[in-house]
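WP5 quarterly update. Target: HTH araC/xylS-type domain-containing protein. Source organism: Paenibacillus odorifer. Length: 754 aa.
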Amino acid sequence: MLRKSFFTKLLIAYLIIVFAYTMIAVCLSFFKDGQRVRSELSQNQQNFLMQSRDKIDTKLGVSFNLIAQLRRNDHVVKFAEKERNYYEITQTSYALQNHIDAFSEFGYSIDLMKTNDDLVITPQISSDRRRYMEDMGMTNEDLAQLGTDSTSPTITLSSRQKTTSTDNESVSIIIVNPERVGIGNSLFFVVSFFEQLLLPPLSPDTQEAFAIIENGRYVTLKSSFDDKREKQLLAYPLAQLDEQATVDYKKLSNDEFDFHLIRSNTMPQWSYMYVTQNYSLVDSFSPNLKGTVLLLAILIFVGLAFAYTVSRRMYRPVGHLVGLFKSYGEPAGADEFAFLNETATSISKANEQMKSALHEHKLSMRDKFLRDLLHGLVPPEKVDDLLNAHQLQSLSSNLSVCVISFSNAKELEEQYSKDAILTIKLKTSLIIHEQLKVHFPCELLDHDFTKFVFIISESDTESIQKKLMKAMAQIEDAHAYGLTAAVGQPVASAGEIDRSFIQALDILKRRSAVDKTSVITYKQLSQVQMVSYYYPIDTERELISYVIRGKRENALNTLNRLLSENLEQRQLTRQQLDQFSLLVLATLSRIIQQLNMPFEEFVQAHKESLDIVQHGESKELMVSAITSLFGAMMDTIDQQNEMMDNSTVKRMIEYIHDNYNRDLSLSMIAEEFNFSPGYVSIAFKNHSGENFKDYLNFYRVQQAKEIMRQQKDIKIGDLALMVGCNNANTFIRMFRKYEGLAPGQYAKKLNEKE
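C-alpha cells (predicted):
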C-alpha cells in the first residue's frame, strides 16, 4: 500500500512556514503593542506630572494671593505695628478665618506670628509660639530656622500631627513665609497644607510615588511602592535629580525606576518628582497577554487550515499522476515519487521497445512507394521516375497483381497467437517469392494480418496460375494450413496497377462462387458471374440493417444493386433464379422476425407480390414485386416508429431505472413493450442517442457511486450484485470504463475528501 509520504512532507513544510510566519507576526504585533503601550504610558505619566504641578501651583498661588491680601488688611497691619492689642488680635483672627472659609476647598490654613513676639494668631485660637509649634509637629530644629525679620528665607517644613478623633497621623506641609507689613514691621505667614489634599492621589494597582523636592531633600514623599523599593528610592541621591529639574518635563531612568521631573512655577525652589517602576518587556506583555494568546491561537488555526488546503492543492497534480499511473500497476514503494519514477521508467522502457518494434516493421521507402502504387496514390507523371529511383525498372509494363490469403484464417487464430501467425505468413510469403522470382520478376508486399501481395511482371495469367499452384501445393503438403490466391487482370503500365490490385481483392471476396481451387483468376470469376447468382452474406446483413433502421434510401440502393446484378447483368438459369427468389424471401422473413411482426399477416397483405417472386414469371415483374415488398416493409417500420414516440422510450428508460438491479437484457425490454429486440435496440438509440447496453451500464455505475457514498464499507462483490452485475470482475471493468478508475480507488477518494 502506498503511503502519502510526499503529501506528509509537503504538509509539514507548509506547517513550518506557517508557524514561522505566525511567530514573526505575533512578535511584531507584540513589539508594536509594546511600543504603543510604552508611548501611551510615557505620555500619560508626563500628563499626570504636569497636571499635578498645575494643581499644586494653583493652590500655592491662591495661598500666596491670600497672603498678599492679608498684608494690606488694616487689622493685620495694626497687629504688626502695635504692641499686643487684643482687639486687633481678635480682628486679625476673624480676617484669617474669613479668608480660609472662602478657600476651604484648597485644603490649607494660614497662621500669623510676629518676629519679635511669641504670640501666634490662628483662625481658631491664639497661642504662644512654642506650644503652637509643638501642636503643628514642628521640632526645635525647625524653630531654630526661623529668623527675626522679613529678610529671613522662606522655610518649607513637613510635620506629622495626631488627629483628635483617631490615633492616625496626618502629614502637613508647612511654608513659613516672612513678609514686611506696614512700616518697618515683619510677620511670619505660616501656610499649612494637608499632604492628602495637596498631592495627587496614586493608583492602588501600580507601584509609584510622588514627591516634592527642595534643595536636594524631600519636602514630602507619597509612595505605593513596597518597603524594599521605597528604601531604594529614599537612598537615591536627590541632589542630582533636583539639579536637572526644569520648568519643562524631563525623564531620567535607572535599572529600577523612571524619574519624571518638573520644577514648580510658583515655588521655584520646589521640584515635583513622579517615580514609576521601570517599564520592561514583561510589563508590556502582561496587559496584552489575552489578546496575544488569542491572536496566536487564531493565526495557528488559520495557518493549519491554510497549510492543509494549499498542501492538498499542491499535491493534487501528484495525486492525479499517481491515479493515472495506477493503471500500469498497483502502487507500492516508499512514497509517490518512487512509484512514479518506477512506473515512468517502465513506461519509458516500453516506449523504447515499441520504437524498436516500429523501426523493425517500418516500411522502407521502396515498399512505401509500391504500396502507394497499389492504392493509386502515385501521380501518373511521377511513376516512371520513381520506378527508376527505386531500381524497379522491371515493373514498368505488363503487370499482374496476386493477393494470397490463408484459407482457414479463423482456425489459425484459434490455434496460434498473433505473433505466431505473422511469423507463419512471413515465412510462407518468402518461400513463394523465392520460387516465383525464378520464373519472372516480382516484388513482395505485406498487406494485412492474413494477406500478402505479389506484383508480377507477367501478363500471362495461366502461367502465373500454374507457378503459384505449384509453390502453394508444396507449402500445403508440408503444413496443415491452406492458401488461396487471386490473380487480377493484367495491366499495361505501372500507373494502372491499382486496377489489377482491386480486382484481385474482389476475387478473394467472391471466391465462394468458384469451385474449390487454390488459385482463382479474373477469367474464372467472369465465367462464374455469368451463370451464378450474386447474394453475399455481408450485403444481405447491410440490407437488413438499413431496412430495420428506417434508412429507406440506403436500403433501396442496396436492393437495386442486388436486383441489377442478378436480374439484368447475369444470365441465371431457372433453377438459379428460383434460388435467388428464395434468398430474397428469406431476407424478408428475417426482417419480419427481428421486428416481431406476425408473419401470416404480412403474407396475407402482400400475397400477390409474394406469388410473383416465388414463380418468377418475368424479371421485370420480379423487380417490381421485390421492390414493392421491401417498400411495404419499410412503410410498416415507419408506422412502428410513429408508435414508438419519445414517451415510449421514456417508459423504457423508467423501466430500466426500476429494474437495473436485475439481470436486465434487451429481450426483456422488447418482451415488456411488445417489440422485437433488434428494433428496440435501433429505436432506443435513435430516440435517446445511446445504445441500450451503454445506457444500462452507465446508470448502474451512477447508482453504484451513490451506494458507496451511503455505505462506506461495502464490499465490491456485494455492490456488483446490488446493481445487477453477477460477476465482480465485469463490474470492475464496467466501472473503470466510465469513471477512469476501479470502484475501490473511487471509494478511497471519497474517504479522503471527507
